[in-house]
Amino acid sequence: MGPTGDAALDVDRIHMSYGDVKAVAGVSFSVRQGEFFGILGPNGAGKTTTLEIAEGLREPDAGSVRLLGESPWPRNVGLLPKIGVQLQASAFFEKLTAREQLETFGALYGVPEDRAMAMLDLVGLRDKAETRENQLSGGQRQRLSIACALVHDPDIVFLDEPTAGLDPQSRRNLWDVLREIKARGKTIVYTTHYLDEAEVLCDRVAIMDHGRVLALDTPAALVRDLDSATHVVLERDGFPAAEARALAGVDDVAEDETSLTIATRSPAPVLAALAERGALSGLQVRTATLEDVFLELTGREYRA
């Protein structure tokens, strides 16, 4: 995808190698103003390097980047107040409380001290304002890190795997923070290897592997274009496999010790037939997900 004039971020055919390893190999995409854009991929896919080039932290070997209409490299000091960056490894000032961390980061941009409490409210940490960062939980530290990236009210925010290593509850709490950031009109560019998360949060996603973009679209469009079968799962003893195979619209039937799974691209008549036979007890319907899209593109299991 080539450059577009009104985009918050344009990445055009960038390349980056580390010795013989080609980390990024011709990546292009554009991010619209106010969009939540995800870069998905397993470790080693090239997503962090791509993000660092977009932020202006690295110079690409080839290609170009336009960030808010300007080049971020060489280091563009004029862009710094307009962008927020949260890296994989959060770095805080030692022995400072959560409030003091934000006040210190804010002072670098001339932000008033009272902005700190507003940011703690945003990320749900007001009650931890006087707690040192090394006494916060992993999820709380991640939320504080995001608050530090936002304290100067940037136009675009870069987040590199912000939910990595968090427990499910902390991940969901952080989802609410990310939704609130987007609701405030901010552009968000983030990387993750959590496909379920990207499917819920992102307006569009780019799936990367081996330094290349394999697919780019909305999550719903990527799933729809996959044309994958719907899987109807029944209790093992609830319906005979032979009868299931005889139903109109059934592509395949698989069995294990506890369940019977019907694969179909015509779920409506299959479900209607099962209802007529009173076989809906314990029934589950599983449609395709972004994980199915990834597996189809790469032909192997997703690497974490």
UniProtKB/TrEMBL annotation:
The keyword Membrane does not apply. InterPro entries: AAA+_ATPase, ABC_transporter-like_ATP-bd, ABC_transporter-like_CS, ABC_transporter_ATP-binding, P-loop_NTPase. Coiled coil: none annotated. Residues 9-235 form the ABC transporter domain. GO terms for molecular function: ATP binding. SMART domains: AAA. Its main location: membrane. It is a peripheral membrane protein. The keyword Protein transport does not apply. Pfam families: ABC_tran. Keywords: Antibiotic resistance, ATP-binding, Nucleotide-binding, Transport. SUPFAM superfamilies: P-loop containing nucleoside triphosphate hydrolases. It comes from the Bacteria. It is found in: Cell membrane. Gene3D superfamilies: P-loop containing nucleotide triphosphate hydrolases (3.40.50.300). Belongs to the ABC transporter superfamily. This is ATP-binding cassette domain-containing protein. It comes from Haloechinothrix salitolerans. The lineage of its organism: Bacteria, Bacillati, Actinomycetota, Actinomycetes, Pseudonocardiales.
